Amino acid sequence: MIRHSYKRRTNWIIFTIALLVVGYLIAAKSEAAVESSKKSLSSVQKKLIADGFDPTKITRLYSRPQVSFEADGVILLFTYKEAQVDYGQFTNNWSIRKAKEYIQKNKADLTRIEKAYGVDKKIITAILLVETGLGASVGTRSALNTLSTMAALTDPVVRNKLWDLIPDSKKISRKKFERKAASRSRWAYEELKALLKYSAREGFDPVSIPGSFAGAVGVAQFMPTSIMAYGKDGNDDGMVDMLNHADSMASIANFLKSHGWRPGQSRKKAEKIIHHYNHSSYYVNTILKISGRLKS
């Protein structure tokens, strides 16, 4: 009995030590991954500070555990094709029924906004349907992480890191990747600055703002620069919250009006204006088709 008890105790000690070693190795690996992630965004932090953002606030922001280099979403920007989107799903009977129900539910806001901006409420509803399923899918990624990761692609080391993470089966040519990375990083940096300015203006925590894999925000999927340029307070609460439906409706209406939308215009003119919202003829035709079906 004594020998068996000793053996069990010895085995338990060995097992406990093994668990501690494994735990240490996992923790060390996790810590190294976090450090590598933070390092990948260091060039972005330096650039923001150089461009006038408060050094203490930027350092504190990028030190938070929720802020990290997120490659999975950004990789989609190098493999995504607009032609792969199934726009037909938005013109089926189920979607049209949901859109009609949405119009009835939000009739007061839509009618008021249509009157204020001269933009057809059916067009506004159609855009909300296609963009986020009328608010059902606003994105679960961190807009801050997505834009920061893209902006960091100006760093050759970070670019190489992302290139290595793209599956071989989905890789484009390296030359095309470099060209897209350079363009995307410049664009994302401007969007990142706008996101930080927007969150500061409205009192939002930038870490908490959800977005798409491209960094688009809210029910209307506005990029931050568009929020700053066209975002409107649609419910008169004193702030522009793109997760609020009335604010998103008013922002869409303001965007379209600012690009020339007028009541009674021709279809050709409508196509040209909606094209500013999304540079896809397939998208434009889908919006107009939905709008047409909502009349019946």
- Helical amount: 55-70%
Shape: globular
Total count of strands: 2
How many distinct helices? 14
Please trace the helix and strand order, writing H or E for each element.
HHHHHHHEHHHEHHHH
Distance between the termini: 86 Å
Strand order of the largest sheet: 1-2
| Proportion of beta-strand residues | under 5%
Task: Describe this structure in a few short sentences.
The chain has 296 residues and is mainly alpha-helical.
Question: Mind sketching the topology for me?
Answer:
Blueprint (H helix, E strand, L loop, with lengths): L1 H39 L1 H9 L4 H9 L7 H6 L16 H13 L1 H11 L3 H12 L8 E2 H9 L4 H10 L8 H29 L7 E2 L12 H7 L14 H14 L8 H11 L3 H14 L2
Antiparallel strand pairs: 1-2
Helix pairs in contact: 5-7, 6-12, 7-12, 7-14, 8-10, 10-11, 11-12, 13-14
Folded structure, characterized:
With 296 residues, this protein is mainly α. Helix content is 65%, strand content 1%. The protein has 14 helices and 2 strands. A two-stranded antiparallel sheet has the order 1-2. Helix 11 crosses helix 12. About 5% of the residues have low confidence.
Write a concise keyword list for the protein shown above.
296 residues, mainly alpha, two-stranded antiparallel ribbon, 14 helices, 2 strands, 1% strand, globular
